[in-house]
Fold this sequence. Notes:
A hairpin with a 2-residue loop joins β8 and β9. A 4-stranded parallel sheet has the order 1-2-5-10, sandwiched between helices. Strands 3-7 form a two-stranded parallel sheet. A two-stranded antiparallel ribbon has the order 4-6. The protein has helices at about 10-30, 50-65, 80-85, 105-120, 135-145, 185-190, 195-200, and strands at about 35-40, 70-75, 95, 100, 125-130, 135, 155, 160, 165, 180. It contains 7 helices and 10 strands. The protein has one domain (about 10-185): Rossmann fold, CATH 3.40.50.720. The chain is of the alpha/beta class. The longest helix has 22 residues, at about 10-30.
Amino acid sequence: MDVSNAPSLDGPAALRFFETSGHNLLSAARAAGVRHHIALSIVGVDGLLASAYFRAKKIQETLIEASGTPFTILRSTQFFEFISAAVQDGTAHEIPISPALVQPIAGDDVADMLADAVFSDPFNAALEIAGPEQFRLDEIAGKIATAYEDGRRVVADIDARYFGAVLGKRSLLPGPDARISALRFDDWVRDSLQPGWAKTLAS
């Protein structure tokens, strides 16, 4: 199971990482007789190739598909936890973020779906997974900022970059066949505000 990510999201660094790690992992998998290669990727990767990071993720997928090893690629929508981390960015007074639609998912639900893939037959294609609700990205960022008592203003900016790419309204949404998780955003926020969580997310 490959859930690795580049230590730097800078385009050239991400490209080097996924090309190198992809070749190394797949070569080791063939030598070990691995019967099911599972990898985590991102919903929308095909339409965001203007971003070097998304090109790097697409290269990872292409290497897996061409490897000859049975595989399943799980393309996930944005994690609630990732959006929470993104809210930490911005200026001292504003958080500029795209108003694109998103259907975010809890990291724990992603882990459960990856575990399900381990005990399933290889799909030999990409499967999409997503949360149960749609939001505008700026809307959910505002909800997270409010929950954590961040007084900065969230600004909807259609030119705000997402890993270097400009988003269309539906760039980050899954297709109709996506597997939908159970945990809703309000429940995730409630759980996240338990003692110790805010400190963990900030660290």
